[in-house]
Specification:
- It holds the Pfam family Ribonuclease_P.
- This is Ribonuclease P protein component.
- One of its GO terms (molecular function) is ribonuclease P activity.
- Keywords: Endonuclease, Hydrolase, Nuclease, RNA-binding, tRNA processing.
- The chain is an alpha/beta fold.
- It has one domain: Ribosomal Protein S5, domain 2 (2-Layer Sandwich).
- It is about 35% helix and about 15% strand.
- The protein is built from five helices and five strands; from the N terminus they run E-H-E-E-H-H-E-H-E-H.
- Strands 1-4-5-3-2 form a five-stranded mixed beta sheet, with helices on both faces.
- Strand 2 and strand 3 form a beta hairpin.
- Helix 4 packs across helix 5.
- The radius of gyration is 22 Å and the shape is globular.
- About 5% of the residues have low confidence.
């Protein structure tokens, strides 16, 4: 399953980590975690049943625990992809949409991606002299090839101390 990252909290968590791989135009970040729960889900968990009662509030008795509560380990499920294509690197919306489609297609072609949160970020613009058309086949092919190399590099086991 490939999901779509949409919440700023998830982007901040992933982009706060060092990039896993870089190419001339893209940076790839990864965090082995599930997306944060939605605000609706978190509010539902915080709301106690006594707060919703229209009658008199019942006194709440809680047992004091001396041991810290154990947090159950959460299994990371699915691959969640976020895309950052800023206007300063791709001025025309046609170009931004083309790059976003190529990023989604690159992930869709790789069914064996490790689960977790992935963010692909455009870090430098494509040369306008080399790709004058905003949505040319040449730009599409160049972006797809570079993204394929980026994902291959990210999936290879890295050697300790080797630059990425």
């Amino acid at each position: 399953m490939i999901g779509k990252l949409q919440r700023p909290v998830d982007f901040e968590r992933v982009l706060g980590r060092q990039s896993r791989a870089r190419s001339a135009h893209f940076a790839l970040h990864h965090l082995s975690a599930n997306p944060a729960p939605s605000a609706w889900h978190a509010a539902k968990l915080r709301t106690a049943p006594a707060e919703l009662s229209t009658g008199d509030a019942q006194p709440a008795h809680s047992v004091v625990e001396h041991d810290p509560p154990r947090v159950p380990s959460v299994e990371v499920e699915g691959c969640w992809v976020g895309i950052v294509v800023p206007k300063r690197h791709a001025k025309r919306s046609v170009t931004r949409q083309l790059l976003k489609r190529q990023i989604r297609a690159a992930f869709a072609e790789r069914p064996g991606m490790p689960p977790g949160l992935w963010v692909v970020r455009l870090r430098s613009p494509f040369d306008r002299q080399k790709f004058p058309s905003a949505a040319s086949d040449a730009l599409r092919a160049a972006a797809r090839a570079e993204l394929a190399q980026l994902l291959d590099r990210a999936l290879k086991p890295s050697k300790p101390g080797a630059p990425q």
